[in-house]
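Collaborator request log, item 7. Partner lab (contact: R.S.) asked for a structural prediction of GTP cyclohydrolase-2 to inform their binding assays.
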Amino acid sequence: MHSVPRDLESAATAQRLADTVLPTRHGRFRMTAYRGGTGTEHVALSVGVHDDDPPGAPAPLVRLHSECLTGDALGSHRCDCGEQLQHALHLLAACGRGVLVYVRGHEGRGIGLAEKLRAYALQDAGLDTVDANLRLGHLPDARTYDEAAAVLADLGVRRLRLLTSNPAKESALRALGVDVVERVPIVVPPRPENARYLRTKRERMGHDPGEDDWQQLLEGTVPRSGELAERYGDLVRRDGPLVLAQLGQSLDGFIASRSGDARSVTGPADREHLHRLRALVDAVIVGGRTAAVDDPRLTVRDVVGPDPVRVVLDPGATLPLTSHLLCDGVAPTLWLVRASAPVPADLAEHVEVVRWHAAGPMAPDQVLQELRRRGLGRVLVEGGGRLVSAFVDAGLVDRLYLTTAPVIIGEGVPGLRVAAAETMAGATRAPVRRWVLGEDVVVEVDLAAERVARTDRSPEDHGADEVEEVSSSTA
Ligand SMILES: Nc1nc2c(ncn2[C@@H]2O[C@H](COP(=O)(O)OP(=O)(O)OP(=O)(O)O)[C@@H](O)[C@H]2O)c(=O)[nH]1
Ligand SMILES: [Zn+2]
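Returned to partner:
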């Protein structure tokens, strides 16, 4: 437990007034109403948080959302509040255990609605968001978080993963005795109207600068230092074809439970890492059965970045016609099917059916050749376990990102399972780098370097073997 001097802990209170359910476009939330000691009413939207949760329950993802009538209710593009609110609810629903405290009284960073609008008028005349507040006689940020902390305490939340790009929120909560085990940045795509506001938040209000680094990486330049530069810099520096693969698995090596449930095996920080990888490649490849079971979107949502082309290896064309990949139209989908597979004629415009005429199974090297012919040289093999293993066994993966989550499933859908080595001398031991992402550990395995080292040791050919059925990953 994080401990703070007692005198820092707050005497603020939050009285629970109502507990009900709110169905939303992101799913059903528990909605709890409170009255703070100052008389202000707050609400908490939560998923997977119950009054009888044991003390050792995993730390939920928590967003403290500051009321913003213009952004939240009216869809203003002057700030990023409305999009952050929706994105946060989406993330909470996706991760299955989280709370969003909608903090009233925080309007205009605590100066109130009309004063915020006066500040907007000053900004129209040239001031930035900080100077406008100062000109009106306010602090740049007048918010306090003691009532929000009291709401969390009432919900039994003392340890949490905080969804924010504002380090001041983290320190405020810590000072109130809350154990913030991790800060997860929240980023929504900038718009021309709010670019200056977002820049001021970074330059003058201490918000994470990391996303500037990310923007640079997306544009193909590597910042001189920083976590993102270190993690993704050499992917950006490399020209030419590149094959990445990723899997998120349990301590006992499964990517999903026996029933195929693959939700929240790894945490939000790993998911963000996966979205960054997607943004850095031309195409992601997924097996047909995984796509049918998980119904993934394969787009970039947790960070800003371009969506890759989505490639489904689905010899039998078993992907349901209602799946995201065939219906959502947000990014191109290449549907690789056997020449004889039945495919309806009236597919959505973003879907291109690629008929596989070659005899035999879809060999990984032929799939890559087909993609390279289309200019898709940088690819990420995303799953499931058998597809990733097939590409690894074929000696085609340059970098494998294997995330291990501290969860034990017992039995389920296997993760990485490659051809067996008879002795340890024959096992693959490649150069690695590792990062702790929340509660998970990512190991980046440099298989390309290992291949070079191995050919140096023995001239023997470990050529690309064909695989039986590359698309199947889940039972
Ligand atoms: N005074 C003032 N308040 C603003 C302005 N633009 C947005 N806000 C308010 O700022 C609050 C949101 O705070 P932000 O600084 O955008 O973000 P944050 O909550 O500190 O940080 P994140 O957790 O990363 O979103 C809302 O209450 C908005 O009403 C502005 O120009 N002036
Ligand atoms: Zn706002």
